[in-house]
Write a structure and sequence with these properties.
heterodimer, B: 133 residues, mainly alpha, 5 helices, 80% helix, globular
Chain lengths: 120, 133
């Protein structure tokens, strides 16, 4: 499958960035549904692309926060190292669950996030 | 408390790999409520913790053959810039109002995602075998 056009990628990135900046939600929660419903990626391809986009966006955000001195390194390692183990499990699991089932579970996640945004 | 932070960390990673999200949805509350950081520090620290998680997830997805590198890099670059605009907009827009609009949009997207998933399941009832590994 060919990559989407640059204009489409730009719109995806801008929408993701604005919503995550506005609400403090991660970019993936916005980007993955856009990739599935608008671009036509399946859930695996959407998740893969989203994770790489998050690396870039989170790096920029973390760099800014480092300057402000808000980052706690020991705390980041305490949750980050177990999370790296978790992501190996998660990606492994995702290859073994039908894409439509992952997509269905994702819609449940969206409902939870909608509730969190309202009640935060 | 450290044990709880580790367990939540693993859970955040599993969600990240399964859904292609960063995992901040669990990491931020874990850092705030379990580790005891204030909200700004928790979000900032979560951003740093997410980088290796998303990088390892993307690397695994690449070896599974699912990663479109050009799309990911391009979207990420635009998102990094647009996030600055998003943060600036918080001070200008009636965020309380926008928040309900955003939640409503999420529910609509959830319904669309679910409907499309159910269509796929109906169309290919035998597609339960994995085809991506």
């Amino acid at each position: 499958m060919a990559s989407p056009r640059i204009s489409q990628l730009a719109i995806l990135g801008i929408a993701t960035g604005i919503f995550s900046g506005l609400f403090g939600v991660g970019g993936g929660i916005v980007l993955v549904p856009l990739l599935v419903l608008w671009v036509g990626f399946d859930e695996r391809r959407a998740a893969a692309t989203s994770l790489l986009a998050i690396v870039i966006a989170a790096s920029a955000g973390a760099a800014t926060q480092l300057i402000y001195g808000n980052v706690h390194f020991v705390a980041a390692l305490t949750v980050g190292i177990p999370a790296v183990g978790g992501v190996l499990i998660g990606t492994w699991l995702q290859q073994r669950i039908p894409v439509a089932v992952v997509q269905l579970l994702f819609s449940v996640l969206l409902v939870i996030v909608a509730a969190l945004v309202v009640f935060q | 408390m450290i044990a709880l932070a580790i367990i939540i960390g693993v859970a955040a990673g599993v969600l990240s790999g399964l859904f292609g999200i960063g995992g901040g949805i669990l990491l931020v509350p874990a850092l705030a409520l379990v580790v005891g950081l204030d909200h700004v520090e928790a979000e900032a620290t979560s951003l740093l913790a997410i980088i290796p998680v998303a990088a390892v997830g993307a690397w695994r997805q690449k070896s599974y053959g699912n990663l479109d590198v050009r799309s990911g890099l391009t979207i990420g670059a635009f998102a990094a810039i647009a996030a600055i605009a998003g943060v600036a907009l918080v001070n200008v827009l009636p965020v309380e109002v926008v928040r309900y609009g955003f939640a409503a949009l999420m529910l609509y997207v959830a319904w669309r995602m679910a409907a499309s998933a159910i269509d796929q399941l109906r169309a290919e009832p035998d597609s339960t075998a994995s085809d991506g590994s």
